[in-house]
Amino acid sequence: MKKIVLTGAAGALGHQLRAPLAAMADQLVSTDLADAVEGLAGNETYVKADLGDAAAVMDLLEGAEMVVHFGAIGDEAPFEQILHSNFLGAYNVWNAAQKHGVRRIVYASSIHAMGMYPKTTRIDTKMPHRPDTFYGLSKCFAEDMASMYWDKYGIEAVCLRIYSASGPVGNARALGSWLSYDDLIQLVQRSIDTPITGFTVVYGVSNNDRSPVDNSAASFLGYRPKDNAEDFAEAILAQTPQADPQDKAQMCHGGPFATVPLGESGVAYIKKMSVS
After folding, report:
1. What is the largest distance, in Å, between two alpha-carbon atoms of the chain?
2. Which residues of 24-56 are buried (b: 16+ CB within 10 A; e: fewer)?
3. Which of 59, 124, 161, 225 is deepest in the core (most CB within 10 A)?
């Protein structure tokens, strides 16, 4: 295709996506709040931009065929910060997409849109939202906006409810929730090259034996994950204490985000628990 716009290009996941996306388009425009990023592809340009700035987003999306929208605060934070980057940023992307005739938006949603469901409940793509934080609520908002813009304007959207995207599996929760970087790339590629998607929700997890989600309704995307967290299970379980069934951080899909006070960092809590 002619032009893809990637938001959040300086983040951990955006960094993984830049080269694969550059290979899928004549032009890749990468954007984030960082002053610059290294290793630009020959057909890639970088533009520093705040997604909360409507005029900047409008300029970015001019001529784009698809947007891969990974730009946002990726953690729980005070509502005012989430409002600017995640709520307003998503609105600006969809509004600019409608004005410029963008065909499809591939959106980095999150498991935290469903984070308060107990892990004993296998969740599918049709169940109601149950967010665990302001961050999760922002993902619900963007998913519902994506559905509305599909119904009103025919802008396709694939909402990727990413669970635990990382390198090697690091804890017992990730035995079900892990999304390897290779499978992340495949998921985004299939979200782009599938001929017709309409409005679709799909969970971002690898081919884990212990996966707690049901992706059958999105099987038409052709996403067939190859990595399996079970390869790490023996070593991880040997060093993991017995789970407390009364602890929502262990018993809810959102993990520690299910227990942190609203507005306080879930990532900081995870790091603290890893050290203790």
Report:
1. 54
2. ebebbbbbbeeeebeebeeebebeebbbbebeb
3. 161
Going across the sheet that includes 199-204, the strands are 44-48, 27-32, 3-7, 66-69, 104-110, 156-162, 199-204
Looking at residue 43, its amino acid is: N
- Three-class DSSP category at 246: coil
The total domain count for the chain is: 1
Task: Enter the tokens of residue 212.
Answer: 């707690």
Q: At what angle do helices 54-61 and 89-100 cross, to 10 degrees?
A: 40
The Cα 113–Cα 103 span in angstroms is 25
Helix axes 89-100, 134-153, angle to 10 degrees: 10
Active-site residue, from 46, 107, 117, 135: 135
For the chain, residues with pLDDT lower than 70 are 270-276
Contact between residue 259 and residue 137 where contact means Cβ atoms under 8 Å apart: no
- CATH, residue 79: 3.40.50.720
- Catalytic (active site) residue 135: yes
Q: Answer yes or no: are the C-beta atoms of 155 and 103 closer than 8 Å.
A: yes
